[in-house]
């Protein structure tokens, strides 16, 4: 009858390594580091339990091992059997986990909805106030720039950036919108008077009379093209207001 301890100088640990390579290939059971750690811990416990069991009983029943009869289960067979049972258990638990109904995300209560709505309204109110402040600041800067540049007797050269554009980086339509901020179109009289002042301010011929000799030569064409486009934008608004 076979000795329950491995032969050919192999320890239970050696056979356990062979068993792990046979039944636990890296490509199947080593996808995640934590899974590999769990496998190594389980196999270590398995080896310890087997060694404890057979080291305690082997010498006590040595005579029984020397009698004729079927070979007892070797460590490799025993470990394989236990591991197969372990795999079945893990597979069963995984299937049960997938069959469990997923918990639905709890819906916000009426109080939560009310708080969210209040926060949204407050945010929109602050955003509108901030936008209004920005528009007012642009309009104020525009009017101050017009007073400094067009009313000045200075002979200082004017580059493109020195011209008091209502919105320096905007289109002619956007510039006109900035200039008209705070003017109510419903008040047709005041609205038309304001448009006439803007038409006179940005009329190409009148602009040249005021600033033509001061324009920097390298920016002259660009300045005049923008003045013409802005003047046309005000003309269209004035025509629409008739």
Automatic annotation (TrEMBL):
It is found in: Nucleus. One of its GO terms (biological process) is negative regulation of canonical NF-kappaB signal transduction. GO terms for cellular component: nucleus. Residues 1-42, 90-112 are annotated as: Disordered. Coiled coil: none annotated. The keyword Nucleus applies. Keywords: ANK repeat, Nucleus, Phosphoprotein, Repeat. Residues 19-30 have a biased composition (Basic and acidic residues). InterPro entries: NFKBIL1 (IPR038753). Its main location: nucleus. This is NF-kappa-B inhibitor-like protein 1.
């Amino acid at each position: 009858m076979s000795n329950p301890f491995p032969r050919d100088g192999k320890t239970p640990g050696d056979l356990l390594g062979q068993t792990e390579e046979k039944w636990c290939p890296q490509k199947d059971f080593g996808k995640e580091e934590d899974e590999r750690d769990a496998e190594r811990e389980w196999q270590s416990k398995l080896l310890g339990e087997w060694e404890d069991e057979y080291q305690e009983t082997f010498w006590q029943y040595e005579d029984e091992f020397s009698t004729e009869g079927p070979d007892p289960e070797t460590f490799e067979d025993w470990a394989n059997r236990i591991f197969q049972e372990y795999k079945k258990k893990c597979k069963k638990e995984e299937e049960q986990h997938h069959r469990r109904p997923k918990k639905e995300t709890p819906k916000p209560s009426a109080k939560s909805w009310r708080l969210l709505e209040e926060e949204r309204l407050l945010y929109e109110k602050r955003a509108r106030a901030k936008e209004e402040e920005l528009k007012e600041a642009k309009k104020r800067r525009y009017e101050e720039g017009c007073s400094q540049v067009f009313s000045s007797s200075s002979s200082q050269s004017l580059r493109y950036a020195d011209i008091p554009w209502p919105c320096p980086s905007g289109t002619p339509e956007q510039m006109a919108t900035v200039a008209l901020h705070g003017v109510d179109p419903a008040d047709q009289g005041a609205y038309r008077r304001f448009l006439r002042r803007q038409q006179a301010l940005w009329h190409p011929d009148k602009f040249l009379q005021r600033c033509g000799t001061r324009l920097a030569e390298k920016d002259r064409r660009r300045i005049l093209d923008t003045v013409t486009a802005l003047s046309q934008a005000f003309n269209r608004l004035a025509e629409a207001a008739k």
